[in-house]
Amino acid sequence: MKKLTFLVSLLFLFSMMPLVCLAQLFWNTNGSSASWTASNWGTSGSGPFTNAWVSNSNTEFTANSSVTLATTSIGNIKVNNGVTATLTAAGTLGTNGNVRTIDVDGSGYLDFNNQAISAAGGTGFIKNGTGTWDIGSQPNAYTGGLTLNTGTIKVSGLKSLGSGALTINGGIIHSTGSHTFAVTSLTIGGDFTFSGTGADIWNMTNNIGSSTRTITNNITSGSRTFSGVTTGSSGAGLTITGSGSGPIILTGTNIYAGLTTVLGGTLQLNKSGGGTLPSTNNATVNGGILQFSSNQTLNDLTLNSGTIIVDNGVTLTINGNFSRNSGTTVTLT
Q1: Please, are residues 310 and 286 in contact by the beta-carbon 8 Å criterion?
Q2: Residue 168: φ, ψ to 5°
Q3: Helix locations, 69-171, DSSP H
Q4: Tell me, what DSSP letter sits at residue 210?
């Protein structure tokens, strides 16, 4: 009984303790270059900037800055509108096993310059703000996941997006080079844009939820291939738009339930992986190109404008109605 009373008292004391908050530090506004761990921080945006670095602090950049990183753990990072924070890679950057927020406002720019990120369990990130976070390439694959809410993420390596779960709720993924990303699962919770170059492959299962998701393809060369299965519950649809010169390619046996719409760019069902839409799917082309490079059965197919291409040797079966109001149909022989 005494032990129980002691434990209850101890729990009560812990409940009365204030929550521990991460310290907030501001980087020096004088434009000089210094080490991340130097005494170049202030507790307010107006300085003075003579404080030592405190591990796991939240940080904010209010003026253009050049910083050489070091092996340490960070809190959340904020870069203000119009500010460029350029980091020189050094050591390994960690998050103390937590998911941290990278908030880059407006036209702000945060350049990680291929900085090594810890692969310790729980290390992950959330990208907020309409600005750009240039992750670059990564020697390690952080495991705690990445969520892109707004703004641009620039990547140039297969481990740049980590090896955990990726959630895309909006924003732009700008990729250079060709990569098969290490991400284990993909949740598409909103509309987003592809830009950049190269032939990227997304070989994980993609869940688009219960709504229509729009992917804008603005790549200037290459392609974006979803080789995993795209899933979705009732009402889940996929819309492809944009002016990208390369296609978005589906090579999985996809099972989302809703309408497939092409407004611009190219959506290709690729025979190399047997890419198909669900046989009960309705597809509409209102612009751009829908290309069948694998055998496909659909319910209804509507061509209002744009082009439908059926590759040589491919059989396209329409169980319901084929409506052609305008546009072009091409059968390659």
Answers
A1: no
A2: -115, 110
A3: none
A4: T
More confident residue, 1 or 317: 317
Q: Kindly list the distances between the CA atom of residue 23 and the CA atoms of 59, 112, 122, in Å, as whole numbers in the listed order.
A: 8, 22, 20
pLDDT of residue 34: 96
Cβ(166)–Cβ(187) under 8 Å?
Answer: yes
Q: By C-alpha distance, which of 32, 112, 106 is closest to 64?
A: 32
Residue 333 reports pLDDT greater than 70: no
Cα separation, 316 vs 295, in Å, equals 6
Tokens of 140: 């390690």
The amino acid occupying position 163 is: S
Instruction: Give residue for tokens 């240039």.
Output: 134
For the beta carbon of residue 25, count every other beta carbon within 10 angstroms.
20
Class of residue 142 by CB neighbours under 10 A (exposed 0-12, middle 13-18, buried 19+):
buried
- What gap in Å lies between CA 232 and CA 211, rounded to an integer? 8
Structure tokens at 230: 């795209």
DSSP run (H or E) holding 58: strand 58-61
pTM over 0.90: yes
Give residue-wise pLDDT tens across range 83-134: 999 999 999 999 999 999 999 999 999 999 999 999 999 999 999 999 999 9
> How confident is the model over 186-199, as pLDDT tens digits?
999 999 999 999 99
pLDDT in tens, 239-282: 999 999 999 999 999 999 899 999 999 999 998 778 899 888 99
| Dist CA 258 CA 278 (whole Å) | 9
Q: Which amino acid is at 113?
A: N
Q: Please check the confidence at residue 184 and state whether its pLDDT lies above 90.
A: yes
Using DSSP's 3-state secondary structure scheme, residue 43 falls into coil
- E strand segments, 197-298: 199-202, 205-207, 212-219, 223-226, 230-231, 237-241, 248-250, 260-262, 266-269, 283-292, 296-298
